[in-house]
Amino acid sequence: MATLNEKLLGVVVAALIVILVVSVLVASQRISNVGKIKGIGVGIYTDSLCTVKCTQINWGTLGPGEMTGATLWFRNEKNTNFTLSYVTGNWTPASASNYLLLGWNYTGYVFKPLDVNPILVTLTAALNVSLGNFTDFSFDTTVFATESNSTVTP
User: Fold this and answer.
1) 91-143 confidence digits (pLDDT tens)
2) Which range marks the domain in which residue 99 is found?
3) Per the structure, how many domains does the chain have?
4) CB neighbours of 96 closer than 8 A, spacing ≥ 6?
5) Strands laid side by side in the 116-125 sheet
6) Rounded to an integer, what distance in angstroms lies between the CA atom of residue 92 and that of residue 73?
7) Can you tell me whether residue 40 is helix, strand or coil?
8) What's the distance, CA 103 to chain centroid?
9) 147: how many CB neighbours lie within 10 A of its CB?
10) Domain-located, residue 30
């Protein structure tokens, strides 16, 4: 059985993937970073006690080839077991999706009702991203909870 710390680490990784709007530092120019997060059937929080809903992530600065991450806590607020997935969309500019990669350390853990787990969400800039590609960008990330009869643990 996983320890509370192991469960929290798993939740942090999954939560990091819930980024909606992001900006990046390319070359030596600072760009503001904000991400909006939307959860469908899952609560997403910035703290382990699940008292502060995550509505934005500030990614700070990110240069070519760099990765940054944020730990978020995901909570099952339904009365059924579920697994998580996410999608990104609405990239502005559209070419930003060719240079930025959103990821997480979620491995398929099945959330039981009221389970809370940390998931690390990461954003990585390609080595070949430059000011000529774009400076500011944004995109939406939506996390989905899909009902599961499985009982896989982290």
Assistant:
1) 888 888 898 899 999 999 999 999 999 999 999 988 887 766 777 778 787 88
2) 4-135
3) 1
4) 133, 134, 137, 139
5) 42-45, 67-76, 116-125, 100-104
6) 27
7) strand
8) 7
9) 11
10) yes
Identify whether 141 is part of a domain.
Answer: no
Distance of alpha carbon 61 from alpha carbon 58, whole angstroms: 9
Residue 128: CB atoms within 10 Å:
10
Joined tokens for residue 55: 């509505």
Single-letter code of the amino acid located at 56: Q
**Cross-strand pairs, 9:** none
> Cis bond leading into 93, ω under 30°?
yes
Residue-wise DSSP of 61-124? ---TT-EEEEEEEEEE-SSS-EEEEEEEEEEESGGGGGTEEEEE----PPBPTT-EEEEEEEEE
Q: Is residue 52 part of a domain?
A: yes
Which tokens hold the place of 38? 């939307």
Model confidence at 67: pLDDT above 80: yes
Residue listed under structure tokens 């998580």: 84
Residue 153 lies in a domain: no
Give the separation between CA 13 and CA 138, rounded to whole angstroms: 21
Structure confidence by residue, pLDDT tens digits, 78-95: 889 999 998 888 888 888
| Total-model pTM | 0.70
